[in-house]
Amino acid sequence: MKQMQIIVLVKQVPDTTEVRLDPKTGNLIREGVKSIVNPDDRNAVEAAVSLKEKYGAKITVLSMGPPQAIDAVSEALGMGADKGILLSDRAFAGADTWATSGTLGKAIKKLGDFDLIIAGRQAIDGDTAQIGPQVAEYLDVTQATYVCGIDEVRPDAIVVKRRLEDGIERLELRLPALLTVVGELNRPRYPFVGRLLDACREKAPIEVWNAADLGFKTADVGLEGSLTHVVRTFSPKSKRQSEMLEGSARDAAASLIGKILNKKLLRETV
Amino acid sequence: MIRSNAEELLRSNIGRFVDSELIPKAQEIDARGEFPMEMFKKIGDMGVFGIRYPKNKGGSGGNTTLFCIICEEIARGLMSMGAITAMQCLMGTNFLFHYGTDEMRERYFLPAMKGEKVACFCLTEPEAGSDLGNVSTIARKTADGYVINGMKTWVTNGPVADFYTVLCQTDPEKKFRGLNFFFIPRQTPGVSVSKPFDLLGTRTTLISELAFSDVKIPHHHMLGAEGLGMDNLLSILSEIRTMTAALAVGLQRAALEDSIRYAHERAQFGKTIANYQLIQAKIANMAVNLEASRLMTYKAAKMIDNKIQCLKEASMAKYFATEGACKAGDEVTRIFGAYGYSMEYSAQRYYRDNRFLLYGGGTHEILQPNIAKWVGL
To answer: B239 and B317: one domain?
Structure first.
C-alpha cells in the first residue's frame, strides 16, 4: 500500500471566548484578543496524526490567512504534521466561503495527489461550516461531514461515523474523500515541544504561497472574488416585554394558553 | 521568510496546557500532597523536560529563555509542578547529560526526558546549606570504584526519584577542590530515603532526607573531571537563579490575575472593590513588580543564551522576582479578604508557595551581600 497522503485544513481564529462587540460600531474588538487554532481543526490534525501513527501517512497542513496564521501551521507541525503550506496574500483578504474554498481547492490541486482531506466542522469565528463541503465540491471528491469516528481505512475506502441530530450514521466512502470532523472525534494532543521549535526554524518544511503562485488574478480571490459581502455585523437586540396576567390561576392559565396559540408557538390539535 | 516566533508559540502552547489541564486540578493536586505523577507524565509526553538539551541527544533543542518560559507558565498554574519541572530539566539531569556514559544516558537520561524516570539533585546537608565547603558526605575511592557515606537533606523529589546526582567530598583536605558529583541510582544497596517532610507550601514537591551507607558505585559514576564539582555547579548557578526567578514571575502572574478577577467580582458598598483606590494601589504595585521581575529574568536568560557571564544579573533577578512573589502572595490574600484565608481559593496557595522560592538557588541573606560586593561595596 502506498503511503497515504492526507491534507488537513486549519484556520487561525480569534479566541472568541475573549471577543466582544463594540456597542457603537458593532464591529469585533480584536485588540488584545489572542489568536488560536480553530478548535475543530485541532481535532482534524489529531485525526490525521492518529491515522499516520496507525497506517503511515504524510500529512500536509494547509491554511489561508495573514502572515501571523503561520502559527496555526507551526502548531500543526508540532502535533505531527509533516509539511505546511500557508496561503497568504493581501489579495486573499475579505474572501467569503466561496472564494476561500476556491483558493484552498486550487492549492490542493497544486499539491498533487491526495487520499484524504480532513477539516474541522466549522470555525468559531464565522460558524459557516461551508468550507469543507465546498472544497469537496470544488475538487469533486466524496465527502462526509460531522464525522465523529473513523473506523477503518483501506487502500480505496474509509469507514466513518457521522454525528446526526438523532443518531449516528456509518458510511463507507471511496477515496479520495474529504471529512469534516467534530470535537467528540478525539482529544487533540498538545504539540511536542521539539517539533514545535523545529517548525519555527528557517529550514522548517513550511512554504508560503501567494495568489500568483496559484495562478490567480486578483479579481478571482479575496473580496473581489467573493459572491457575498458583509454589509454590517451587529448583535441582535433583544427587547424583553413582560405582561402581567390578572385574575385567578385558572383564568391566567387560560389567557396564557390563548396568547401562545395566537403567536403560533403551539398548534391546537383535536 | 515567514516563521513563527518560537518564544511566543511555546508560551501560548504551554500556557494553553496550563490553563486547560493544570489550573483546573491545581487545588486538588496540592491538597492531596502526593507527587503528581499523572501530570508529570503529561508534561513529559510534550517533550518539555528536554527543553535545554539538543535534539539529536534526546532533548527538544531549546535554550534558557525557552526553559524559563516553561517554568514561568507551569509555576503560574502550580508552583510545585514548576519546581518539579525545573528539577527534571536542569539540576536533576544536567550532569548526567554532560558527564554520564552512553549507557547511563540511555538507561536514565532518555527516560527522564519522557517523564518515565524522576531525577533529583542532592546538595544540602544538615550542616552544609549555603556553606557547601562543609559538605561531609564522603566518597572514598577504592580499587573498584567509590564507597559513599553520609546524609543529604532538603532533597527535592527525594522520595520518588529514580536516580540522584549527589555532591560528595572525596578529600576533605582539598575543601572545594575535593567536591565532586556522583551518579547514584536509587536501587543501589545502602541508599535509604526518609519520609517526605511536612511542608508549608509546594506540598506536592516531595522533599526528604537521603542516607548513604557504604553505597558502592563504579568509578565512571563520578560526573565530571575529578576536582571540578564546584566549577561544574557554578557553571549552572546563573541558570538555577534565573530559573527560580522565572518560577517567581509565574507565581506573581497567578496572584495578579486572580486579584484582578476577584476585584472585578467582589462588590462592597454598592460597587466592586476594583473601584477602591487602596485596591488599585495594590494591583498597580503587583503589576509593576511583575513587569520589572520579568524584564530582569529574561535579561539574565538572554545573557545565558548569548554565553555572557551574568551571575550578578541572575542573582538580582532571583532576589527581586522572589521578593515580588512574596509581596504578591501577601497582597492577593488581602485583596481576597477573609476568602484569602480559606483553603477553598488559590490565594492561600500563592501565599504559602512563595516561601519555596526563598531558599533554592541561594538565600537572600547570601545573595544580598554578594550583590552589594558585585556593585562595588
So the answer is: yes
